[in-house]
Amino acid sequence: MISILETVGFYSVAIVILYSGFRVVTTRNLVHTVLWLGMVLGSTAVVFLMLSAPFLAAIQIILYTGGILTLMLFGVMLTHRDYGFTTVPNDSRTQLQAAVLGVFTFGVLAFGILATPNLPSQPAAVPNTQKLGEAFLTEHVLAFEVLSLLLLAAVLGAIVLARKQDPQVDGEVDGPRIPSRRVGQPQKG
Amino acid sequence: MNEALELLANPWIHGFVFGAVIVTALMSVTAYITWFERKFAARLHSRMGPTMVGPKGLLQPIADGLKMIQKEDIVPRDADRLLFNAAPAITLFFALAVAAVIPFSPGLLASNLDIGVLYALAVSGLMGFPVWVGAWASNNKYALFGGMRAVAQAISYEIPMVLSALVPVVLAGSLSIGQIVEYQIEHGWFAFWPPGPGIFAFVLFMLTALAEGNRIPFDIPEAESELVAGPTTEYTGIKFGLFASAEYIHSLLASALGAALFLGGWDGPFGIPVFWMLLKTCMLFVGVTWIRWTLLRFRSDQLMALCWVYLVPGALGLLLITGLYVHVRG
Fold first, then answer.
1. Does residue B6 belong to the interface with chain A, where contact is any CB pair within 8 Å?
2. What residue numbers bound the domain in which B138 lies?
3. Are residues A109 and A134 in the same domain?
4. Which of B125, B144, B302 sits opposite A186 (nearest CB)?
5. Which of A31, A65, A129 lies nearest to residue B115, judging by beta carbons?
6. Is the pLDDT of residue A149 over 90?
């Protein structure tokens, strides 16, 4: 009974992922594309749950669906002047680029999976959030810290890019002068 | 009877049954929360509130619901029909999905997820997203501005919310809400013990929960004086109703989460555990409502300043203190 339900569940999720992935590359409306991508990422979280990796599933939702997708939507909205339904170009050159990139990525992934020996056929019986945390801070502590440093650099870079230039500090600003007002400072009174 | 219990032990069937029960209960409770809120607000304003429909206006929610269903369902001509229609349902889905991991008593929860806290925060953080999609699909500038504000606010306030929720996680050494509650039953509620980080984290958590749920004083996305009705400008009838109930359910479940993480969950001196959990949730919700009808709305930049200048560093400091405490405690 359980195994049938699990099988049905897995294949339904797989179909959803594949169909959404197909729609990501065929949809021309840019916002719809991002939302189909959201479907792919969200359904992948369900696959993680089925493989008894709830931590990965939650992180997948927080990071990809919550963070990156929102960022992409913001990007789509803010980089196009018309609020209307932006479409992606569909010429042969873009198609060629996409095809090359897709085949390359698929090849790397397939090679990586096939080259890894002894992949377990069954998920670990016990949820392994604690083990994961311990591994991060003991075995892989260097990689973990390097990643944090990378993220810190990214945050600093974002601040530098987003900062309004102060004429007194940075010299003359190009373009029209923006009356400088401290953004984010609550005004008194 | 035994067979039925056996069937319930199956995680899939357990999930379906409890899911149905919890969703039904939450939706009915939400209807009456609107009645309570209107009465409560009326008292704060020295008014009467709803009095006409039924004794003490008790049938008002039903009348409201019927009215919403009867209203004309308008889809703007230039809207993205599919997304416009889907957004309210998805919003409600994310709001309800948090309920899956909230333990009402030791046995009464839909899923005892190993990483309950993380799941609840992930799902509730997603709620701003479909609101924004619906706003974009409306193809209305006020809706779009409101949606942008909603999602910016949701992203910003998710950070201090997660950080403050990490304080009980670090103290109890578990990401499972059930285990956090059990730890509190043994060692005292985190809001009071250890004194210091717990109570501040609790206040921070409730504050950020208010902001995530777009409640006053954080309801800038739908600031009606500037943006008509924000993301819901173009929505009518029951679709608007779905957005509104999603908001109520979000506040209610955030109160439940606060009660479980900081106030000892179902812990109480006597009687049945469910009662204490529900009592604490209701108390917190009354507090949230009280704030809503007392305070004014922040300005958009004040809101962001509050988050990034005070709440995020504050939450990080709290987490550091908690970590040191746990380290010293050994």
1. no
2. 75-329
3. no
4. B302
5. A129
6. yes
**Pair (A132, A93) in one structural domain:** no
Can you give the CATH number for the domain in which A12 is found? 1.20.120.1200
Residue A159 maps to a domain: yes
Does B305 touch chain A if contact means CB atoms closer than 8 Å? yes
| CA atoms of A101 and B295, how far apart (whole Å) | 54
- Helix, strand or coil, per DSSP, at residue B191: coil
pLDDT tens by residue, A24-76 = 888 777 778 888 888 899 899 888 888 877 888 888 888 888 778 888 877 77
All residue ranges of chain B with pLDDT < 70 are: 1-2, 4-5, 7-8, 110, 214-227
Contact B211, B295 (CB under 8 A): no
Count Cβ–Cβ pairs < 8 Å, chain A vs chain B.
Answer: 77
Residue B183's φ and ψ, nearest 5 degrees, are -60, -40
Decide if A171 is inside a domain.
no
Is residue B182 domain-shared with residue B199, that is, in the same domain? yes
Domain of A144 in residue numbering reads as 128-166
Check: CB of residue B254 under 8 Å from CB of residue B212. Answer: yes
Is the same domain home to B47 and B90?
no
Which positions 54-83 of B are in contact with A (Cβ < 8 Å)? 80, 83
Please count the other Cβ atoms lying within 10 Å of the Cβ belonging to residue A167. 11
CB A60 within 8 Å of CB A44? yes
Q: Which of B70, B96, B122 is the last residue of a domain?
A: B70
Task: Give CA–CA dist A129/A58, Å, rounded.
Answer: 11
Give the C-alpha separation, B230 to B222, whole Å: 4
A97/A99 Cα distance (integer angstroms): 5
B312 and A CB contact within 8 Å = no
Task: Tell me, yes or no, if B133 comes closer than 8 A to chain A by beta carbon.
Answer: yes
Overall residue count recorded for chain B in this entry: 330
Residue A16: per-residue pLDDT: 92
- Do A108 and A145 lie in one domain? The reply is no
What is the 8-class DSSP label of residue A180? Answer: P
The C-alpha atoms of residue A37 and residue B305 are separated, in whole angstroms, by 32
Q: Identify whether residues A148 and A66 lie together within a single domain.
A: no
> What is the Cα–Cα distance from B315 to A103, expressed in whole angstroms?
45
B159 touches chain A (CB under 8 A): no
Q: Mutation test of the interface with chain A: which of B124, B131, B136, B327, choosing the one with the most A Cβ atoms within 10 A?
A: B136
Residues of chain B with Cβ-Cβ distance to A31 below 8 Å are 80, 83, 133, 136
pLDDT of A189 reads 45
Residues of A in contact with B306 (CB under 8 A): 186
- For B153, other C-beta atoms within 10 Å of its C-beta total 22
